[in-house]
Amino acid sequence: KIKSQCVLLTTGTFLKACINIGPEKRPAGRIGDVSSIGLANTLAGLGLKMGRLKTGTPPRLHANSIDFSVCDRQLGDDPPVPFSFMNEKVWIKAEDQKLCYITHTTAAIESIVKDNIHVNRHVREEVRGPRYCPSIESKVLRFGGRKHQVWLEPEGMNSDIIYPNGLSCTLPEELQVKLIRTIPGLEKADVVRPGLFLF
């Protein structure tokens, strides 16, 4: 037994969570990890009310399949600025930082989203997502007729995986590939992991 006046459980997105890709739904905390179903059931059995939060991610792309020459280079800070006030400098030199790039969506994305919105579970069920980082489907529905920036960010210093920030997407995987390939620089992009939402 653990005795305490207060217990704080930080389960993140894992508490009885499901991964959703298009109409498919399966229990998971994220791809490759299990959902905390037993803990959720125990808490519910104690009479505790649980809410659901939604988070989404974009499909991940292989860097070698992207034409960065048609994208805008984004240099890192010079000198690099630490994320914490506890540090005065970071370990990496400005010239050793990995580059990010910017591209943008096209009108073709709007057609793909609108023609296939019926297979998008989170939009169909009106699940409310994060306010300040909406999915590409939400952007198309709320802000139709606009181009949206897509930041191409390396997932790490030694990674060939690119995170296309601004393209959180929950359409079926084959439609995600079609959508990605309408974007300048991504016409031949290899999707190594589909976008999804956790709910």
From TrEMBL:
Task: Enumerate the spans annotated as MnmG N-terminal domain.
Answer: 2-196
Q: Which cofactor does it need?
A: FAD
Q: Name one GO biological process term.
A: tRNA methylation
| One cellular component term from this protein's GO annotations in UniProt | cytosol
InterPro entries, per database record: FAD/NAD-bd_sf, MnmG-rel, MnmG-rel_CS, MnmG_N
**Gene Ontology molecular function terms on file:** flavin adenine dinucleotide binding
Q: One Pfam family name from the record? A: GIDA
What this protein is called in its record is MnmG N-terminal domain-containing protein
Q: Which UniProt keywords apply?
A: FAD, Flavoprotein
Concerning its family, UniProt says: Belongs to the MnmG family.
